[in-house]
Amino acid sequence: MITIKDNELPVSVCGLYTYGKPVPGLVNVQVCRKFSQSASSCYGKEAESVCEEFTRRADAHGCVSGVVKTKVFQLLRKGYEMSIEVQGKITEDGTGIEMTGTGSCGITSTMGKIRFDLLDYAYKPGIPLFGMVKLVDGTDAPLANETITITVGGNKYKGNYTTDEQGQSWFSIDTTSFTELSLEIRADHKPELNCYDSDWMTPSYEHSTRRVTRSYSLSKSFLKIEPKPETLTCGSSAEVQVHYILTPEAIGEQKKIVIYYLVMAKGQIVLAGTHDLTVNPGNAYGTFRLSFSVEAATAPVAQMLVYTTSPSGEVIASSEDFQVEMCLPSKVRLSFAPKESLPASNTHLHLHASPRSLCALRAVDKSVLLMKPENELSPSSVYRLLPLKESQGYSFRDYYLEEDNVNPCVSLDNLSLNGFLYIPISSDGEGDAYNILKELGLKVFTSSKIHKPELCEHYPEHMMERSYSVSTMNLHGELAYDMAEDMVDGNPMETVRKYFPETWIWDIVSVNSEGKADLEVTIPDTITEWKANAFCTSADTGFGLSPTASLRAFQPFFVELTMPYSVVRGESFTLKATVFNYLPACIRVSVSLAESTDFLAVPVGKQEESYCICVNERKTAAWAVTPRSLGQVEFSVTTEALQNQQPCGNHIVESPEKGRKDTVIRQLLVEPEGTEVETTYNSLLCASDESVSETVSLVLPETVVEGSARAYFSVLGDIMGTAMQNLHQLLQMPFGCGEQNMVLFAPNIYVLDYLNRTAQLSCTQHLRPGLSEQDSAAE
Hints:
Blueprint: E1 2-3, E2 8-14, E3 25-34, E4 49-57, E5 63-69, E6 83-92, E7 98-108, E8 110-119, E9 122-123, E10 129-136, E11 147-152, E12 157-162, E13 168-173, E14 182-188, E15 204-205, E16 208-214, E17 222-225, E18 237-246, H1 248-251, E19 256-265, E20 268-278, E21 284-293, E22 301-309, E23 315-323, E24 333-337, E25 340-341, E26 346-352, E27 358-365, H2 366-371, H3 379-383, E28 395-396, E29 399-400, E30 415-417, E31 420-422, H4 433-439, E32 487-488, E33 491-497, E34 503-510, E35 516-522, E36 528-538, E37 542-545, E38 549-553, E39 557-562, E40 566-568, E41 573-581, E42 587-593, E43 599-603, E44 611-613, E45 617-627, E46 631-641, E47 660-671, H5 738-757, H6 767-778
Parallel strand pairs: 1-7, 8-15, 9-16, 25-38, 33-47, 40-47
Antiparallel strand pairs: 2-5, 3-4, 3-6, 6-7, 8-10, 10-13, 11-12, 11-14, 14-16, 17-18, 18-21, 19-20, 19-22, 22-23, 24-26, 26-35, 27-34, 27-36, 28-29, 30-31, 32-33, 36-37, 36-38, 39-41, 41-45, 42-44, 42-46, 43-45, 46-47
């Protein structure tokens, strides 16, 4: 996101392999801003958008970065879309493979935005009003060391606050002098510009306003839980400060007040207790502290309630929500040892969880998660599955469970005094103890006073019906390689790689009584980074999820093949073999394609005996290949670092003592020419004590493509075997008269008989109403 006053737009396009190395090649970058109304296609692409374009070679990190001047895009002018589109195209050296990535950058005329991140919905006279504001620019970047002005009720209060590094500012406002039923709180950064032009954009500075209402108390006594702006961390103890004002009307001569508190999470009460508060007779005010343990049981939102009951029966209460880290009850850790290793080598996967847990393990290629990152399992994705995250209101499914107020309404008359007519003020709009309990979804059985008085309908201009509106809630390092060590029994060290899965590990593992499991696994042949995680269930601790563990499978010298997934027999394609050198010195290599009778291969270009490859470089060899056989055809390409002292330009070649080899074997699907035709033969054999056989005649047409004929068979011991899943859904509800249901009777009878014989009959929801319907039709 950029603002209309930005003069420059930084652009960066990068290409990386899944094993973390940069992609060398030519990068083309195109930056465009489209017109809001495109002209006719007769005028070409220039009538669609304004563009800047540049092409450069990728640097050592596989990136091309630049700064585009925004003047050409006319950010202050109207008539354009409020976004800039960026397209980057990387053409890989050697293979010519092109990869394209796109991105967009929004344009905003908003230079500053203020929002209330935390603010009480009601104020309690005499207790500070707490809140937090956040200031960001048009790109949502925080603005630090800026002054924000907060005003309450026009001129009731005005104060300046300075933002921190996160653009936030915490404030508390003295409410002793506030008496209004409702107050507006406004936060300003800079004044708005009073400018307008139909062709030009005007920078704007947004302000934020909120309304707070006065809390009701018959004795003017209040409790207030001080909010916390930060997210509570699991495993810690949260200290909560509670403010109180207790008047003589509420406590009388009491010196010891019992404060009750409870903590709710996921719609359940997880903690309850009391606190003894010692006060002096008369007006008592001050603060006290409560604490509770932060754990998975209190996540993701801990709802706290504190209350006390006065001798007169008045309930004085306060509630507050605290955001809690999304942690899980069972702690699971997963790690590889070592974290980097060679393909096809062995490694250990260490799993730590609660004793005797049952764990599901998964390890996939990083490229899988790059394509669909939303498939990654995380605590937030688990918590999104919860049917209830926090309780609020008395709405349950389609029912509204609030009872009518049984307390009689108060009837007051207008008062005439000294020629002035005084009309009673309604307390409607003020929050009471009942509203606090209702917001938490708590149903209360009590004879105490939790409701504020309500005026009778005698004063219609002030009387409002009980509100039944419900707030909508969602319930629901690089490896060090020594070239001198690359030998095995005096022979060149050779790796043969032919196993390239996308999913490496998919298994269920039991943890021992010590809470440990150690698996020795073999790394596949793919040069990539593997991402592994595990989730576990335990009868004692419940569900747990491990952070993602990474294993980098890498070797400093290897060959990769570029080829299609499938071709038609007789069709030629180019097979490219790219040799990568991440060794600390230049080397000379040979590249060869193993001969086979299944294909014909001809080198493309000049064939050389050896190639020179320096540090972090690559070389590509290519062959024009024409397959001769059908099915899976195997291609084997080998590259070897040679003991050759011929220099690479100005660089000295350091040859391994015994060389190094890497062989890659990949398969290509060769399909027959022509059109595929499939014929199916079905037969039913009745089993007996003796073997049963049947002869099937397979007659091929005269025009069949040579070598393409194939046959396969399958045997099912159950004629309904192919319809095993959701078989009960074949049962249909009979409706209407008997003639309309005749066609439904036969399949229903057969399906019911099958379900009954296989002990799967559990659905009879259609039988009784269906029979009742038929009986009524017969009558």
